[in-house]
Amino acid sequence: MSNDKIVEIRKLSKTIGKKQIIKDLNLDLHKGEITGFLGPNGAGKTTTIRMMVGLMKPTQGDILIGGKSIRTDFEGSIEKVGVIVENPEMYKFMSGYKNLVHFARMHKGVTKARIDEVIQQVGMQNRIKEKVGSYSLGMRQRLGLAQALLNNPEFLILDEPTNGLDPAGIREFRMYLRKVARENDVAIFVSSHLLSEIELLCDRIAIIQNGELIDIKNVNEHQQSRYYIEAKPADQAKQVLEEIGFTVHPHENGYLIDTEAEHIPGAIKLLTAAGVDLYAVQPHRTTLEDQFLEMTGGGEIAQAHTK
Amino acid sequence: MLKLIQNEWMKLWSKKATWIMAILLIVILLANAGITKWIESTSPAPESDWQEMATMDMMMYQDQLQNSDLGPAQKDYYEGQAAIAEYRLANDAEPFKVESLQQQVLDSHMMLSLVTLFTVIVGAGIVASEFSQGTIKMLLTRPVKRWKVLTSKYITTMLFALLFAILTFVSIALFSWIFFGTGDGTFLVWNGSEVVEGSYWAEALKLSALSLASTWMIGTFAFMLGTVFRSSSLAIGVSIFLMFVGVQVVFLLQRFEIVKYYLFTHTDLTQFYTGFMPVPDITMVMSLIVLAVYFLVFMLISYWTFSKRDVTA
Q1: Cα-to-chain-centroid distance, residue A244
Q2: pLDDT of A220 higher than 80
Q3: Which residues of A touch B15 (CB under 8 A)?
Q4: Which of A46, A21, A34 is nearest to A189 (CA)?
Q5: Are the C-beta atoms of B142 and A103 separated by less than 8 Å?
Q6: Tens-place pLDDT, residues B19-59
Q7: Which has the closest alpha carbon to B307: A217, A155, A74?
Q8: I need a labelling partner for A124 at 20 to 30 A (CA). Which of A78, A209, B68, B76 fits?
Q9: pLDDT by residue (tens digit) across A32-60?
Q10: A230-254: average pLDDT
Q11: Which is more confident, A146 or B68?
Q12: Any idea what the Cα angle at residue B122 is, between residues B121 and B126, rounded to 5°?
């Protein structure tokens, strides 16, 4: 990971009424890195993001973007930021092109050539002159991305960007984001409650719960290697595996064992020799969902998932 | 700032509603001229003698002058009108007929209440619609301070009012020229000591400009409500209600001192030149000061709420 900090969130707090929504949040974001922002509903994701883009004012603390404070130098700090807050709401009564012209005028030095370039980039040349009202959600999302890229941002903030997109749309969107992060060395910050989505997209994940940052971790960090084994009779298989010295966890219809790949063929031989019928032996990766639930101790998402 | 105004102007005219308002305005003015023409041609007014009318006017004005509770502006007005009527009789100077380009242009300022109506609709919606469409999120996450965004919207509203006022003036001149043509007559003014011939164009423009003060105030009020409540229908409703009822309240409050600080006592600046003053002892300077204070209060409330507000929608 590069160490170029582009965003620094310092002791950020937000109190609305008597309720403290965000408590003392600290977070750094780096160039070329996609950071996922994960949390149960109501954990404070949207509030944090709205403070980062100037829609809400922090009660305490500060956010520095490119070293400039959002409180004292709003125009300077937000200059190199691209934003998509939930569904990008565009002016439906104007064409996509006019919408882009509109937002381009609000930045310094966005030329006509740049507008055309961005349109190419998101592949909207054919319908850019049509009214936004006639666009599908996927096209609006692409137009939203186009407007966010207009000013060559060094930092992209996306709040629930894939809400309402179909699987193909989500996939397409993900590819665009990855491309932008890699090619333009842009820092991307994505909030979502779709765990699988975040897992596929992000390099790093920050988890927030009840307004507090509870963990920051890298997605592809080396995990303890685990294997899933399904065999019958199950009890006998368990016995054999324990005799070899593996720790055995029951999982679905079989067992999980913590071990490295080289020990697997030996284990299979021993199991077959003991007369156990093998149905499946496969590497097991803990999903982000499992990790997430472990960390947040269940909570709202767990309940939502079991329903 | 110019670019922001350009943006607002582009958004305004990309909406069908704006074009409908422009067309509606022209159609109403055309119909007004057409109906006047039609009434004139189907039932011509009895050939009345203008000399007779002028004599009656002169007597009426002189009568009014005996009235002791006239304000200074009214006194001037009646003195001037009586002198003009006298001059007309003495010098055989015919006034304009109602069905003439000149008189229609002179009365054009009365049609500006239509402009006020449309300005209220635009002013109330220009901020509120950004909230209801959700585009406010896109608008405020740009490297532009909020007060600049609001200023561009306010200026755009006022430019719209000005454009529509010009459109009204030009349409009336054009339609009355087509329907009635230029009539005979002289335009006379009282300059304080004698009656002289004046330009009816200059007079008409002066009255229109003064009428715009009311458009400006009510437009600003609607703009404030739209900004504060983020609901254009509420802002339009309240503003139009006040536009009609506000003036009536002047009559209710007439006897009380407080009426002098009431907005609608002062919104009609033409009152100093038309003699119709519900509260006689106010002056133009006083009205301008009161309007300026109201304006500042409206602006302060708008800017304060707009720049402090957390956008959660």
Answers
A1: 40
A2: no
A3: 93
A4: A34
A5: yes
A6: 999 999 999 999 988 988 888 888 766 666 778 888 888 88
A7: A74
A8: A78
A9: 888 888 887 778 888 888 888 888 888 88
A10: 83
A11: A146
A12: 125
A131 touches chain B (CB under 8 A): no
Do you find a cis peptide bond into B143, omega within 30 degrees of 0?
no
Tens-place pLDDT, residues A3-24: 578 888 888 888 888 888 888 8
Burial B215-237 (b: 16+ CB within 10 A, else e): bbbbbbbbbbbbbbbbbbeebbe
Residue of B nearest to A148 (CA): B138
Task: Give the pLDDT of residue B128.
Answer: 92
Q: How far is CA A136 from the centre of its chain?
A: 24
pLDDT of amino acid A221: 59
Dihedral class, residue A249 (left if φ above 0, else alpha if ψ from -120 to 50, else beta): beta
Size of interface A-B (CB pairs under 8 A): 79
The 8 Å CB, 24+ separation contacts for B107-110 are B108/B168, B108/B169, B108/B172, B108/B173, B108/B204, B108/B207, B108/B208, B109/B204, B109/B207, B109/B208, B109/B210, B109/B211, B109/B270, B110/B211
Structure ipTM: 0.81
- Residue-wise DSSP of B193-253: SSEEE--HHHHHHHHHHHHHHHHHHHHHHHHHHHHHH--HHHHHHHHHHHHHHHHHHHHHH
DSSP H helical segments within chain A, as ranges? 45-52, 74-78, 96-104, 112-121, 137-149, 167-184, 195-201, 234-244, 264-273, 288-296, 299-306
pLDDT category of residue A303 using cuts at 50, 70 and 90: very low
Token reading at A134? 């006639």
CB within 8 Å: B310 and A90: no
A138: left (phi over 0), alpha (psi -120 to 50) or beta: alpha
Asked if A88's CB is within 8 angstroms of B10's CB, the reply is no
Q: Average pLDDT, whole number, for chain A? A: 82
Give burial (CB, 10 Å; 0-12/13-18/19+) of A58: buried
Contact B10 A102 (CB under 8 A): yes
Q: Identify the bridge partners of residue A218 per DSSP, sorted by sequence position.
A: A204
Q: Residue A250 burial (CB < 10 Å; 0-12/13-18/19+)?
A: exposed
Per the structure block, which two tokens stand in for A78?
């937000």
Distance CA B198, CA B141 (A): 55
pLDDT in tens, B225-248: 999 998 889 999 999 999 889 888
Compute the distance between CA of residue A140 and CA of residue A259 in angstroms, rounded to an integer.
47
B193 CB near a chain A CB, below 8 Å?
no
List Cβ neighbours of B204 (8 Å cut-off, separation of 6 or more): B105, B106, B108, B109, B169
Please tell me if residue B16 touches chain A, with a CB cutoff of 8 Å. yes
Contact B134 A98 (CB under 8 A): no
Q: Give Cα A148 to chain centroid, integer Å.
A: 17
Q: Using the predicted structure, report yes or no on whether residue A304 has a pLDDT greater than 50.
A: no
pLDDT averaged over every residue in chain B: 88
Tokens standing for residue B176: 């009355």
Q: Which of A50, A93, A101 sits opposite B15 (nearest CB)?
A: A93
- Selecting from A57, A79, A94 the residue whose C-beta is nearest the C-beta of B14 gives A94
Any residues with CB less than 8 A from the CB of A216 and at least 6 apart, and which? A27, A204, A205, A206, A207
CB contact A88 to B (< 8 Å) = yes
Put simply, the answer to whether A91 touches B11 (Cβ < 8 Å) is yes
Backbone angles phi, psi at B158, to 5 degrees: -70, -35
